[in-house]
């Protein structure tokens, strides 16, 4: 028997997602990650896609693109395939149930092939086990637990999947900026760091990172995105991204 699921809208209803009622669910992170991706990219791979939130949001915004969604959980991968078809994106999107760490290796799945992507979207597992309480729900815990070695391994997998000059977009905790830059070093450069703040004057709660394979240019910090004003209403900039499918940067 399949667990209870809900159907939820993102991007102002442009994309509908069927997802488990409990566990890790699609939220702002997926939409922000998709918005960070350049519209010039055509061959996308979404690593750790879950039910397809980020990858499908990107494909909905960029009709010329195609992509591969990679998810280790077979049940979530099946939902991702269902969501791609339900949103009319099945012809431009395939779903692979696989471990990200096996991608673009001789023993791994055939797709995404080594060097075939010009864009990788990545919402890697995060929250250091010693510093944050583990969720009692297995799927949510798996989606939010990692260490620096796992982050580096995901970045390395993205590197294998990307063509030279390909773009990596990831979202993470701002506290992990050191670990992120360390994982990128020697593989990616020209990193752009975009902090996301819940309201004016509040510390960032997420860090969006966009970097280019093979570049050596130093990183730069972009102006932050503020999600809500002092009264709690969404800012115009946040609404443009989260509802109107406007790109970031």
Please characterize this protein's 3D structure:
With 249 residues, the protein is an alpha/beta fold. The protein is built from seven helices and eleven strands. The strands form two sheets. Strands 3, 4, 5, 6, 7, 8, 9, 10 and 11 form a nine-stranded mixed β-sheet that branches. Strands 1-2 form a two-stranded antiparallel sheet. Helix 1 (28-36) packs across helix 2. The longest helix has 14 residues, at 148-161. It is globular, with a radius of gyration of 17 Å. 43% of the residues are buried. Residues 127-146 have low confidence and may be disordered.
Key terms:
alpha/beta, 11 strands, globular, 27% helix, two-stranded antiparallel sheet, 249 residues, 27% strand, 7 helices
Summary of the model, kept short:
This protein has about 250 residues and is an alpha/beta fold. The chain has helices spanning about 30-35, 55-60, 75-85, 140-145, 150-160, 175-185, 235-240, and strands spanning about 5-10, 15-20, 45, 65-70, 95, 115-120, 160-170, 190-195, 205-215, 220, 225.
């Amino acid at each position: 028997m399949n667990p209870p699921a809900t159907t939820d809208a993102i991007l102002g209803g442009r994309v509908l997602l069927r997802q488990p009622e409990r566990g890790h669910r699609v939220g702002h992170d997926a939409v922000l990650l998709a918005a960070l991706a350049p519209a010039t990219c055509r061959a996308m791979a979404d690593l750790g896609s879950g039910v397809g939130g980020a990858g499908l949001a990107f494909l909905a915004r960029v009709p010329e693109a195609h992509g591969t969604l990679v998810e280790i959980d077979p049940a979530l991968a099946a939902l991702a395939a269902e969501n791609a078809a339900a949103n009319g994106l099945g012809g431009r999107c395939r779903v692979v149930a696989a471990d990200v760490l096996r991608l673009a290796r001789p023993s791994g799945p055939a797709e995404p092939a080594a060097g075939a992507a010009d864009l990788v979207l990545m919402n890697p597992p995060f929250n250091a086990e010693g510093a944050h309480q583990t969720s009692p729900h297995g799927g949510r815990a798996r989606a939010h637990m990692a260490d620096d070695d796992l982050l580096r391994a995901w970045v390395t997998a993205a590197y294998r999947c990307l063509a030279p000059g390909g773009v990596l977009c990831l979202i993470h905790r701002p506290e992990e900026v050191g670990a992120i830059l360390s994982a990128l070093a020697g593989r990616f450069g020209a990193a752009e760091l975009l902090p996301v703040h819940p309201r004016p004057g509040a510390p960032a709660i997420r860090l969006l990172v966009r970097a280019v394979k093979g570049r050596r240019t130093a990183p730069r910090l972009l102006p932050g995105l503020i999600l809500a004003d002092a009264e709690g209403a969404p800012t115009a900039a946040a609404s443009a991204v989260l509802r109107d499918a406007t790109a970031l940067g």
